[in-house]
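re: ur msg from earlier - yeah i can do the zinc ion complex, just paste it... oh wait u already did. ok heres what im feeding in:
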Amino acid sequence: MTDPVTLTGDEGRIGEFDEKRAEAAIRELLIAVGEDPDREGLLETPARVARAYREIFAGLYQKPEEVLTTTFDLGHDEMVLVKDIEVMSSCEHHLVPFHGVAHVGYIPSTDGKITGLSKLARLVDVFARRPQVQERLTTQIADSLMEILDPRGVIVVIECEHMCMTMRGVRKPGAKTITSAVRGQLRDPATRNEAMSLIMAR
Ligand SMILES: Nc1nc2c(ncn2[C@@H]2O[C@H](COP(=O)(O)OP(=O)(O)OP(=O)(O)O)[C@@H](O)[C@H]2O)c(=O)[nH]1
Ligand SMILES: [Zn+2]
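and the outut:
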């Protein structure tokens, strides 16, 4: 078993993942849906699901500044854009997945402070691995980049399919939700259009 981790979400809450409590809750849920948690196939399920949730919500215990630690002063002052970063998140209304891709771009600060490309994908994970709505996921990525890298502009575009709209409820597989957040110089229509055409190019 992994050690308990301290909860350091951006809302400043303090706590840790309570594996025993999660396990008991899953057992209760199985009983509530009319299953028998003591039948052989389900014996390990509460513990397994608890461990799965710990992983799925791991972003609750990470701070964005912890993943954006590697920065370089390269003096590069043009746009940097990483496209098609896989997003795997959980809808906070139904606790089922929504998944798709994120495109994250920024124009570095005037002194050219940039970060490692993989760190942008790690930043997406920090916020995706929490109970989320797509709009908040999008703005949290944009705002934390602005705060930590002090860039001249940021653009975040996310395209996702929500399982709560496919496996239940309205049942519309294939429907995609697109959200965007632009900050700083990327609000300028010409710069924003340049970024959007790079994002849309296949
Ligand atoms: N804005 C937004 N809505 C979301 C997101 N994920 C799920 N939802 C929506 O949250 C809403 C919750 O609506 P409710 O009426 O409270 O729940 P419900 O009865 O399960 O709704 P249905 O999904 O329409 O069956 C639904 O319309 C979902 O499609 C998201 O990331 N952003
Ligand atoms: Zn949902």
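cool cool. The radius of gyration is 19 Å. ping me if u need the other ligands too
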